Amino acid sequence: MKHLRIHDQEVFRIVEAEKERIENTIDLIAAENHAPLSILEAQGSAFNLKAAEGYPGRRFHAGCGQADDLENLAVKRGKKLFGADHINVQPHSGTSANLAVYFAVLEPGDRILSMRLSHGGHLSHGDAASITSKCFRFVHYGLDPDTEQLDYDAIAKQTADFKPRMIVAGASAYARLIDYRRLAGIARNVSAYLLVDMAHIAGLVAAGVIPSPVPVSDFVTFTTYKTLMGGRGGVIICKEKYRRQIDRAVFPGSQGTPALNQVAAKAVCFHLAATREFAAVQKRVVANAAAMAEEFKQQGYRLVSGGTDNHLVLVDLRPKGLTGRDAEEVLESTGIIVNRNVIPNDPQPPDRASGIRVGAAAISARGLETSDARRIVGLIDAALSNAGRQEVLKHVASEVAVICRNFPVYSQDDKMMLPSSL
Ligand code: DSN
Fold it and tell me: Which one, 22, 306, 327, 415, has the greatest CB density within 10 A?
């Protein structure tokens, strides 16, 4: 940061403050993680500025020799990591990846069946507020009211009635495994495509900790910065027969030049995600989330779906008389970072919400084990049960500070090293 410090003190100070915040708070946002600094270096590298419209060997700009080497390497590594027929590493984000898939094989106005945002889905799966819903006709499936899990019979019935051209699976706040094979069968019955958006769980899939949607899906999209521990950016995997349509839908269909700095970070991310150390982190993510779920239940909290199979738990705060927003604010005052989240059939509006979503990815990257995860839930409970009592909140904050000191995000003696656990 030595040049930034000289050219722009104001931005430099804000960046430094953010680094301090990351080191000194416990990140439980299920969509976040800590990336190895090698990935951030790649993302801030010389590739930031290169114009390289097109694909390796077929660019619309000169000087793309290294760009081609880089993209070919990212593609090779990504295909191997996920056992993919074809992979496109150019999407700028998960939403742009999803948009490209829709436009690759559908016509505007076509029918798509996807999970409702308020039951755990994602904006780009056709929520009314998203541009995706202006382009295609979405109908949503939800969770079974009793189990709060996907009801595949109900999805099959909806599919038979609605006859979508595509089914979208995947979620941003669903704590259970998804039966991709079952969904593929349901889609096949009406000749619909199956798109699985595995953004949240891509790291768990890469490590083989939970089942992969790749073998049974037509398309799989994901981002690299959540459980996968990479930088920001999106990726599309598809069956070989859709290669041309997908590539054309990304460029020139919906993007111009790729962000090659992101492509560099994706290449490093795929490389690290193939290591034993990465797999160990991902196993810890699932173990830590399960430990947190158990501890929440022991402390009297209600969990949506009753538990977790992946990296997150969704906590219903109604029995505690708190909204998600209140909880988010109290916890942030102690250095614990979560996000408020609607629960299925939430009586509160989304900006208040009745729940919090708690993810175990970032604490696992820091090296925390299940006993630490349980301790964090104890601190959450102490803060939420004593929201107005400053002395208790101060005590929780001091405990949080101890945990952060004991588990530095980046190795203390050499800031260019990987996060402590990789
Ligand atoms: N998809 C959003 C989330 O799950 O919070 C962030 O990328």
Answer: 327
